[in-house]
Write a structure and sequence with these properties.
23 helices; 59% helix; 651 residues; mainly alpha
Length: 651
């Protein structure tokens, strides 16, 4: 399936069914039922405008409609708050999201611009429960376009890639809201998504050649599986199934009356991010806990592992110890199948390749957006500084001896995967190689025009040139083509100097997710210590009435000293502030989990020691029996070696 830009003819058409109009109306009626009784939002982008825009043959009229669509685009940018990260009095996200998804039905440059705006907005806006009706509307609209139109096309389109990326951000946000328990009142919305999710599941095989798309699709399906299995009754869910249930593998989830439980790896990754943000001294202890639970990266519950890598990647952008832990996790994940026979099949299961591809995207973001140059350099070439970085660009010839994996940086992974790729190699190998090359192309575009990082971009560009001249595998060549299409520019990235027209990476969603999960896992320990915000109107009324009040009488504060053995025994230290108490509480929580882990390890060691003693006793018993048999056979005696035969009695 070759990749092309969006065709001139509108591939999606216009959603004109009464069902979608009623859906939009019901979603926003529930949002507008507030105490202040805000008026219903009026949409400037109408069905009639989209039909006229896509079907006009008159060049003059077409130019007028194009100018009007551009005005709609500018208005949507203001409502989305693209320049203010989704904040401000002029921002109204539910209305803006609906207008943008309607505007994306227009053909040509308007469609590309609308999808880019929607992707940027979903990337950087904060989490708010009022967004849920609009999020479900976006989810249904994106799935509708993918299932009802995109899957029927023979070729892969750039618009299709953008829709999948947008769907990933939508379901990532829905999953975070699900963890907070905010989806209980949206069961009807979840039911409406079921037909599209079934169609999405059976369309997966057409994307096996494109790991960047397949990874996002599998994330959407896994998120929907967890949310629907928890929020909907099993009887209702089973009644919708007319074919084989694609959501049947639920053994790895921990479901109870409280809902979905995250694994320890995600919990400690959020704790590490919180320690980095607040500069807490417990960071090293938390990172030790992460390495203790590194085996959880190899379990089927890969959605938690993907979120853990995402959150830990955000911490790695600020802290070198977190970056080392992140790279050690992936190194262990890639090396463990080679050292343990029970993990030999991990290279060929789908979720393992999803984990590797997710990591390549995260480490590429660290290379671009880390806080210091040392962090960016380490993410690119690794911790070894004993040789010239230019030597790391060299790709290993497949005829030479395969190098060992000595880290999980961009260039070390490139050499590791390139030396092992073949026609019959494991899926993790070629997907990892694909992910590294795919993200290198996007990095090259992102660094274009940045004079401060000119040397960094030169190294990336030279690496891409080596790959272009060296690699003949069509799967890896596809990675370059897909990255070009995603950046909405068909020009050659090795010679063109034009800037990309779309966002190469999601820059803010990781930080938003980490912040929201930290508020869920570590709620405020002392609410009273936080200052209470008062409305502006209350402050103005207080200023007006303060002059009318009579001066209050002075209150005499009497200090009564209780009986103490000695005044010197009283504490002379000030009362701990909020952050001190928060650090202490976090340390207690970490120590508690550490003690539980140590107790579990001690129990396992005790069982192993008991089994070892039992085996030794059994071996000793068998050995003694062999000795007795040999003695009886040679000496014709049945006594033990150390026994003295009693003398025979004389008659």
């Amino acid at each position: 399936m070759p990749v092309y830009k969006s065709p001139v003819v509108n591939k999606f058409g216009v959603i004109t069914s009464t069902y979608h109009e009623e859906l939009l109306k019901s979603n926003f009626e529930s949002t507008n039922r507030r105490k202040n009784r805000k008026p219903k939002p009026s949409f400037s982008v109408t069905k009639e405008f989209i039909l006229r825009f896509n079907n006009t043959d008159n060049p003059v009229k077409e130019e007028e409609l194009l100018e009007q669509a551009r005005k709609f685009t500018v208005r949507c940018k203001r409502k989305l708050g693209l320049k203010t990260l989704g904040s401000g009095k002029h921002v109204h996200l539910p209305t803006a999201w609906a207008e943008v998804i309607y505007l994306a039905q227009c053909k040509g440059e308007i469609q590309d611009e609308a999808l880019n705006m929607l992707y940027a907005s979903l990337d950087h806006v904060s989490f708010d429960c009022d967004q849920l009706p609009a999020l479900f509307f976006l989810a249904e609209s994106v799935l509708y376009r993918l299932c009802c139109d995109a899957f029927k096309k023979e070729y892969l389109y750039s618009v299709e890639i953008k829709l999948v990326k947008i769907g990933y951000l939508i379901f990532l946000r829905l999953f975070v809201f699900f963890l907070h328990g905010h989806l209980e009142n949206f069961k009807q919305h979840l039911l409406r998504l079921q037909p599209y999710l079934y169609a999405l599941y059976y369309s997966e095989p057409s994307y096996y050649k494109y790991p960047n798309i397949l990874s996002s699709l599998q994330f959407i399906l896994k998120t929907a599986e967890i949310i629907c299995k928890t929020e909907l009754h099993f009887e209702v869910f089973e009644s919708l199934r007319e074919v084989e249930d694609p959501f049947s593998d639920m053994n790895h989830l921990q479901l109870n009356k409280r809902g979905y439980e995250v694994n320890h790896l995600l919990w400690h990754s959020v704790a590490a991010w919180s320690c980095v943000q607040d500069n807490r001294p417990q960071l090293n202890a938390v990172l030790e806990h992460i390495l203790v639970h590194k085996a959880q990266l190899q379990t089927k519950c890969w959605l938690d592992s993907a979120l853990a890598l995402l959150v830990l990647g955000e911490a790695a952008k600020l802290n070198m110890a977190c970056l080392k832990t992140l790279m050690d996790l992936m190194t262990h994940f890639l090396l463990s199948p080679q050292s343990q026979e029970e993990y030999c099949s991990v290279y060929d299961i789908p979720w393992a390749s999803d984990i590797v591809f997710t990591y390549t995207s995260i480490i590429a973001e660290v290379c671009l957006y880390a806080a210091t140059s040392d962090l960016r350099k380490t993410a690119l070439i690794g911790f070894c500084v004993c040789k010239d970085p230019q030597q790391d660009i060299h790709l290993t010839n497949k005829s030479e001896e395969m190098p060992e994996l000595d880290g999980a940086s961009i260039l070390t992974l490139l050499k590791y995967f390139s030396s092992r790729i073949s026609d019959n190699c494991a899926k993790v190998i070629w997907v990892g190689y694909y992910g590294v090359v795919y993200n290198l192309v996007k990095m090259s575009w992102e660094l274009e025009g940045d004079e401060e990082q000119d040397g960094f971009r030169t190294m990336v560009w030279q690496t891409l040139q080596k790959i272009k001249d060296y690699e003949e595998d069509p799967r890896i060549q596809n990675a370059v083509t897909i990255a070009q299409a995603e950046l909405n520019d068909a020009a050659d990235p090795f010679s063109s100097k034009a800037a990309p027209n779309s966002e190469a990476f999601s820059k803010y969603i990781g930080w938003r997710v980490a912040k929201t999960l930290s508020e869920l896992f570590f709620p405020s320990l002392d609410v009273s210590a936080l200052p209470q915000k008062t409305p502006v109107e209350t402050d103005l009324q207080r200023k007006r009435t303060i002059s009318k009040r009579q001066p209050e009488k002075k209150r005499v504060v009497r200090i009564v000293m209780k009986e103490h053995p000695s005044v010197l025994e009283l504490s002379m230290f000030p009362y701990p502030d909020f952050f001190t108490k928060a650090d202490k509480k976090l340390e207690e929580v970490i120590d508690h989990h550490w003690q539980k882990d140590m107790e579990t390890l001690k129990q396992i060691e005790a069982v192993c020691e008991a089994q070892k003693r039992k085996d030794e006793e059994e071996k000793e018993k068998i050995r003694f029996q062999e000795i007795m048999k040999q003695r009886e056979r040679k000496l014709n005696k049945q006594t033990k070696p150390y026994e003295i035969t009693p003398p025979e009695k004389k008659e």
